[in-house]
Design goal:
The complex is a heterodimer of chains A (250) and B (144). With 250 residues, chain A is α+β, with helices and mostly antiparallel strands. Chain A is built from 9 helices and 7 strands. Chain A has 2 domains: 4-105, Beta-grasp domain (Ubiquitin-like (UB roll), Roll), CATH 3.10.20; 108-247, Fumarate Reductase Iron-sulfur Protein, Chain B, domain 2, CATH 1.10.1060. In chain A, 33% of the residues lie in helices and 14% in strands. Chain A starts with a strand and ends in an 8-residue tail after the last helix. By secondary structure, chain B is an all-alpha fold. Chain B has a domain at 29-91: 3 helical TM bundles of succinate and fumarate reductases (Up-down Bundle). Chain B is 64% helix and 3% strand. Classes of the chains: A alpha+beta (250), B mainly alpha (144). The A-B interface holds A 13, 15-16, 20-21, 71, 95-96, 98-100, 106, 138-139, 142-143, 161, 164-165, 207-211, 213-214, 221, 223-224, 227-228, 231 and B 17-23, 25, 29-30, 32-33, 35-36, 39, 43, 103, 105-107, 109, 111, 113-116.
Chain lengths: 250, 144
């Protein structure tokens, strides 16, 4: 049942026409179950087909529809228009990221960061393939399961001031992915990830603002992952002096 | 079959209008959100605590230089500016320690079976350790 209309103020930017982004108002009908993503799709279907934004699953799994809603990074599919009544609802692209068009941001720097930390299980090449397999106990799974919930929606990048201040910072989600695999009992890739993490643009750019964890829609705690990785990196640094073979296997 | 045949498709080279807009960050970014303001306060608290430590080091230097110098430093402590610094240092020490204690469960994860020890317990252990340390220092100084 359509209840009312609400002003949705969307940031527009068409690189072929606009010098800089600007806000455009749309009057959108809404009911109790209208999500913010529904509202954007209604604008695209009924008012302006040129409005550009990413979306896919509509159920907080794909991580595509992250926007700034009244200045706070959120998933459009997960938020209801009713919570922003009587409006206006301001929808802008995720902060701290370059805007390609309207609400679409440039994902390439994030994809490069993610690739750099090798976010996959790296096994010891000496391990025989005919072994018993990679069984895990519930305790071993607990060590990384929280961090494995990340959907790469980049809300944490938008919440982190260091992403804007330190341009080459790996960022919360990429570091969390690295920690997720470092904590996995099946993985032996920690030594390969450490040179990427233990750098000025890696862990040490994080100043522990903590807002990355507050905005995460999946309850992942990137701030915790990064601080744990800092402790690990510091111990590795100590091990270089204190242990034979610099703490590595012979 | 004869004839001119289908007209070849004209290939028009595509033109990219890509021009990513990079927003600039304001110098006052740390005032933009409540969490940023809390972060800025936590960071700033270390500056005040640092100034107080500087005052204490100056006291030690004065003590080393002799009686006159020491009296000058003791008199300086009653100066309104110094008193304000001392009160601020107490407040900022509380801000600094409580916010850091609150953050400790993010780093210290203690697993018991298939669950982690609750965050509140980890924080409580820090306050307990601080209290024990306080008692030890109190008796070390001869109970004042």
């Amino acid at each position: 049942m359509i209840q009312d209309k609400l002003t949705v103020r969307v940031q527009r930017y068409r690189p072929d026409r606009d010098e800089a982004p600007y806000l455009q108002d749309f009057e959108v009908p809404w009911s109790h179950d209208t999500s913010v993503l529904d509202a954007l799709n209604w604008i695209k279907d009924n008012l302006d087909p040129s409005l550009t934004f990413r979306w896919s699953c509509r159920m907080a799994i794909c991580g595509s529809c992250g926007f700034m809603l009244n200045g706070v990074p959120k998933l459009g599919c997960e938020q209801f228009v009713r919570d922003y009544a009587p409006g206006p609802l301001r929808i802008e692209p995720l902060e701290n990221l370059a805007v390609e068009r309207d609400l679409v941001v440039d994902l390439e720097p994030f994809m490069a960061s993610l690739k750099a930390v090798k976010p996959y299980v790296i096994t010891d090449p000496q391990k025989p393939l005919s072994g018993p397999g990679n069984l895990q106990t519930p305790e071993q799974m607990l060590a990384y399961s929280d961090f494995s919930m990340c959907i790469n929606c980049m809300l944490c990048y938008s919440a982190c001031p260091q992403v804007a201040l330190a341009v080459d910072f790996l960022g919360p989600a990429a570091i969390t992915a690295a920690v997720r695999y470092n904590h996995d009992s099946r993985d032996q890739g920690e030594h390969q990830r450490l040179p990427v993490l233990d750098t000025e643009d890696g862990l040490w750019s994080c100043t522990f603002v903590g807002e990355c964890s507050a905005v995460c829609p999946k309850g992942v705690d990137p701030a915790a992952a990064i601080q744990q990785a800092k402790a690990s990196a510091a111990l590795s640094w100590v091990a270089e002096f204190a242990l034979p073979y610099q703490g590595n296997d012979r | 079959m004869t004839g001119p045949g289908p007209k070849p498709i004209e290939v028009v080279p595509s033109v990219s209008h890509r021009r990513p807009f990079r927003p600039t960050i304001k110098r006052t970014w740390f005032l933009a959100r409540p969490a940023y303001r809390a972060y800025a306060l936590r960071e700033f608290s270390s500056v005040i605590v640092g100034l107080f430590v500087f005052d204490l080091i100056a006291g030690l230097v004065c003590l080393h230089r002799g009686q006159d110098s020491w009296r000058w430093w003791v008199d300086l402590q009653t100066n309104p500016i110094n008193l304000t610094l001392t009160v601020l240092a107490v407040v900022m020490s509380l801000v600094h320690s409580t916010t850091w204690f609150k953050a400790t469960p993010k780093i210290i994860r203690i697993r018991r079976g298939v669950h982690y020890v609750a965050d509140g317990w980890v924080v409580a252990q820090h306050y307990l350790l601080l209290a024990l340390f306080g008692v030890v220092v109190y008796f070390w100084l001869g109970g004042l």
